[in-house]
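Database export, one record per block. Field names are fixed; values are copied verbatim from the stored entry.
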Amino acid sequence: MHRLRRPFQIIRADLRAYLLVNVFVYGMLLLGMALGSLFPGLHAARVASFAGGGQGALVNAIVGNGWVFGTVIFLVNVFPTALLLITLPSLVVPFAGLAVFAVKTIDLGITLAPVDTISRLTLIPHSLTLLIEFQAYALVMFGAYLLGRSWLRPATVDASTRRQGYVRGLTRLGWLWLPALALFVIGAVYEAIEIYFLVPLVLGT
């Protein structure tokens, strides 16, 4: 039970910061979508780049198998994104992961911009995927923020040195990874259901 309660205790202790991180995370996504809608050429370029790159090839290779698709979505969300883009940079430079992820999120928002009827209809079921997965990212981002703050200001975690502050901040980040992983699993399962059942339903295909 302690493992279940501890992440929520961390969130409650810094609720304002957690809410601000959420505003930042979802705000960057909406900003990207707004840019993609305002500049359709930019959106088209990003979609073409995705389709012609390694990610597009990976999607085409696995989309025929729901279990493989869901597993790959989970792995991509956890390792290249949450771990490599958010966590690891933040372990070296305070708050670095927040800046890196912001750039990535704006780029994703541009790609997902609802510029036509198909993309607008697809976004109806996909919005729940974004809500779930970006909440997982927000938890990791919140942990990265707490790490950076306790590293630079050890007194915020009752530490006397920056080394102690770093360790305590890292511990909080680790606890927040637990609910984030659960949300990544839920998001991957839902995204598989969305792709195979809900998107064809809303598109009438």
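Remark 1: Residues 21 and 43 are 26 Å apart (CA to CA).
Remark 2: The chain has a mean pLDDT of 94.
End of record.
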